[in-house]
Amino acid sequence: MEDYWRYEQEIVRLFYDYVDSVLWFPYPVRYEEARLSPALTDALRAWGRRHGEGLAAGERWPSPELPARLTAELPGLAARVGDELGSAFEVEYASGSDDPMDQSRKLRYRSTEPPTNPDASAAFGALAEAARAERAALARRVASEPGGSRAWFAFQPGGGTIYRPPSP
Predict the structure, then answer these.
(1) 90-94 vs 23-24, strand pairing mode
(2) What is the pTM of this model?
């Protein structure tokens, strides 16, 4: 997998996972927080709703065509998100894979133009800055603890909690 830093700084992902948003940077981004245009926000919500309804019956698609139709819509949605955010951000989406971590089918779109929605671009810039600050705070905190950065731990993003395995 690519350096996780890029997912905090410049790669916006579009995929369905049982949350209220299909936008990830690197965590789910609420549509209100994203500040995308109302038309694009409605399109993303509709895509996520159709995906969720399609899987509602015990993880089985109601028709074999639905996953392909949903996948076919992703390049257009990615381009719309990418155009609103501008060239500072890349939009990643899956092509035919239900697994959001399957890197073999990842495609990306990056606009070559300035953002068509400066408010949305600023919102994602603020999210990237918050991720940088969180990463720096975590690095300082881990370095100051016994064992420093060589110790094993898990971290809850957004909450600041560090989980360490119990000592033997």
Answers:
(1) unpaired
(2) 0.79
Per the DSSP assignment, residues forming a β-bridge with 11 are: 90
Main-chain dihedrals φ then ψ at residue 135, nearest 5 degrees: -65, -45
pLDDT values of the chain reduced to their tens digit, one per residue, 168 residues: 456 667 677 999 998 887 889 999 988 999 999 999 999 999 999 999 988 877 766 667 777 788 888 889 999 999 999 999 999 999 999 876 555 455 567 899 999 999 999 999 999 999 999 888 887 887 777 777 666 555 666 666 666 676 666 765
Q: Which residue in 107, 87, 89, 88 sits closest to 97, CA to CA? A: 107
84/4 Cα distance (integer angstroms): 23
The token pair that represents 80 in the structure block: 């719309």
Could you tell me which residues come within 8 angstroms of residue 89 by beta carbon, excluding any fewer than 6 positions away? 10, 11, 12, 82, 110, 121, 124
One-letter amino acid at 14 equals: L
CA neighbor of 112 nearest in space, from 85, 86, 78, 140: 86
* Dist CA 31 CA 4 (whole Å): 23
Question: How far apart, in whole angstroms, are the C-alpha atoms of residue 100 and residue 14?
Answer: 9
